C-alpha cells in the first residue's frame, strides 16, 4: 500500500512539474517565467498610463477603445508565448512582454503604419517572433528589467526556432534598450508626421519620444545551442 501511495505521489509531482511555467534566464534581479492569464493586469494598470501613444491619445478616457485594446491583448496572449518578470522578494509581477509569432497574414493598424519597410521582407522570412507590448512597472524601470525581458524574448524565440525577432518600440528609452541587445531599426514613423484627417494624432508623446520604431534582428541558428530554460515549480522556489 505504501508503495502504491509513493508511486501516486511521484506521478502527481511529475504532473505538477509538467504544468509548471518555464523559467527563463534573467539578466536582472528578477525571475522571468511564462505568463499566466491571472498575471496579465500590468498592461491595464501601467501600460495605458505610461505608453506614449496611449497617453498622447488619452486612451484611458475612452472606455470602448480600452476594451478593444484589452481584447486585442488577450488575442495576442492566446499563443502562450508571453512572459512576465517577477520580483524575487515579493513574487509580484513587475514587467510583462506580450508576444506571439507574427505571420504575413497578420495586420494591425499600428503595424501597417510603421511597417513602411515590411519586416517579413527585411528578414526574408514569412514568420518572425514579435514583441507587441513591453511594459515594466515604473518602480523598476531603472533596474534593467526591460533589458532582461528583451533578452528572455530572444531565448523564447530561439526555443521556438524562429529565424528573427522584432517589435514596435514607441518610446526613446525602449528604443535605446532594444539597440543595447542587438535590435536594429527597420522602419519608423515620426509622431509629428502621424496624421489623420490632416491632424497630428500624437501631439504630446512625452519628452524624448519622437517616433514609433519597428526594430528587430535575425537570430543565428547556432544560438539555438546556447539558450537556457528550465521547468520550475514557482510555488516552491
TrEMBL record:
SUPFAM superfamilies for the chain: Acyl-CoA N-acyltransferases (Nat)
Domain of life of the source: Eukaryota
Gene Ontology MF terms in the entry: N-acetyltransferase activity
Transmembrane annotation, as ranges: none
Name used for this protein in its record: N-acetyltransferase domain-containing protein
Amino acid at each position: 500500500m505504501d508503495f502504491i501511495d509513493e508511486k501516486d505521489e511521484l506521478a502527481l509531482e511529475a504532473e505538477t512539474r509538467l504544468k509548471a511555467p518555464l523559467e527563463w534566464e534573467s539578466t536582472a534581479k528578477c525571475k522571468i517565467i511564462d505568463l499566466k492569464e491571472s498575471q496579465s493586469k500590468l498592461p491595464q494598470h501601467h501600460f495605458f498610463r505610461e505608453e506614449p501613444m496611449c497617453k498622447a491619445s488619452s486612451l484611458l478616457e475612452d472606455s470602448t477603445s480600452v476594451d478593444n485594446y484589452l481584447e486585442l491583448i488577450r488575442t495576442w496572449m492566446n499563443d502562450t508565448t508571453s512572459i512576465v518578470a517577477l520580483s524575487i522578494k515579493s513574487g509580484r509581477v513587475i514587467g510583462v512582454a506580450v508576444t506571439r509569432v507574427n505571420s504575413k497574414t497578420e495586420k494591425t493598424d499600428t503595424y501597417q503604419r510603421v511597417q513602411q519597410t515590411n519586416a517579413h521582407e527585411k528578414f526574408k522570412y514569412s514568420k518572425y517572433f514579435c514583441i507587441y507590448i513591453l511594459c515594466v512597472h515604473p518602480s523598476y524601470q531603472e533596474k534593467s528589467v526591460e533589458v532582461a525581458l528583451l533578452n528572455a524574448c530572444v531565448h523564447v524565440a530561439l526555443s521556438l526556432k524562429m529565424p528573427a525577432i522584432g517589435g514596435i518600440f514607441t518610446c526613446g528609452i525602449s528604443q535605446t534598450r532594444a539597440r543595447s541587445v542587438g535590435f536594429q531599426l527597420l522602419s519608423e514613423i515620426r509622431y509629428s508626421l502621424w496624421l489623420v484627417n490632416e491632424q497630428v494624432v500624437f501631439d504630446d508623446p512625452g519628452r524624448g519620444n519622437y517616433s514609433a520604431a519597428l526594430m528587430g534582428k535575425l537570430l543565428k541558428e547556432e544560438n539555438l545551442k546556447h539558450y537556457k530554460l528550465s521547468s520550475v515549480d514557482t510555488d516552491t522556489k
